[in-house]
User: Which sequence fits this backbone?
């Protein structure tokens, strides 16, 4: 299957700093990528849909100025958590589908801890 | 929008028993229903999916059934093994709408005891 790579796998940062998470499609081009947040023992909650060359579409309740998404190329989307606070600590995971197909391939996820 | 309900939230079985996880969806236009397995700290992996033009699909010990009229679908795992222990998520989406946004159920933690 297709491969989606996410980096870093884990990161610890201080409150008030910003953290950038990368999501890459390694063997296919993805015009659309999805960003999810997952709390412990909970489901995947869609945060936003990242569209190559245009603005991301955010789900209700997700602050677009807090979670900046940039999809500058067909193989890379980035999520930047700005002015991070402890409540932003979570598991963030991206996904993408091969164009013309529906199966979603997930990145390995990023464990963010804000101290 | 779509709403997916999943039950049970936890399921404990003995090795060799069968396990059944059930999901319901709200959007009658949804036509693609994948199931994902997520081990602790790892990415979700697709284990089986079904489209609305079929009622059942089987892959070795795993099967999925779909009832479009009732808007529910189920995952069946037979002859469970300890390595089946994980969190399982159902999802629903509309294929053919440009890109498909998956709506996930809340997940079922399956524990298979030796």
Assistant:
């Amino acid at each position: 299957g297709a491969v989606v790579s996410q980096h870093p796998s884990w990161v610890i940062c201080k409150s008030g700093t910003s953290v950038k998470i990368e999501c890459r499609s390694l063997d296919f081009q993805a015009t659309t990528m999805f960003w999810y947040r997952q709390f412990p023992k909970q489901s995947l909650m869609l945060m936003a849909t990242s569209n190559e060359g245009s603005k991301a579409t955010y789900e209700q309740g997700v602050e677009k100025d807090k979670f900046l998404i940039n999809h500058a190329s067909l193989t890379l989307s980035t999520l930047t958590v700005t002015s991070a606070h402890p409540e932003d600590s979570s598991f963030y995971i991206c996904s993408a589908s091969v164009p013309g197909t529906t199966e979603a391939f997930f990145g390995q996820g990023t464990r963010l801890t804000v101290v | 929008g779509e709403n997916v309900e999943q039950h049970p939230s936890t399921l404990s079985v003995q090795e060799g028993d069968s396990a059944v996880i059930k999901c319901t969806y709200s959007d009658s236009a949804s036509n693609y229903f994948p199931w994902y397995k997520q081990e602790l700290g790892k990415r979700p992996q697709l284990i089986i999916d079904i489209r609305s033009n079929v009622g059942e699909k089987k892959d070795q010990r795993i099967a999925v059934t779909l009832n479009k009229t009732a808007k529910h679908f189920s995952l069946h795992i037979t002859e469970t093994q300890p390595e089946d222990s994980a969190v399982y998520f159902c999802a629903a989406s509309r294929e053919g709408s440009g890109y498909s946004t998956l709506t996930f159920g809340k997940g079922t933690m399956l524990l298979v005891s030796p």
Q: What stands out?
A: Chain A touches chain B through 21 residues (CB under 8 Å). The radius of gyration of chain A is 13 Å.
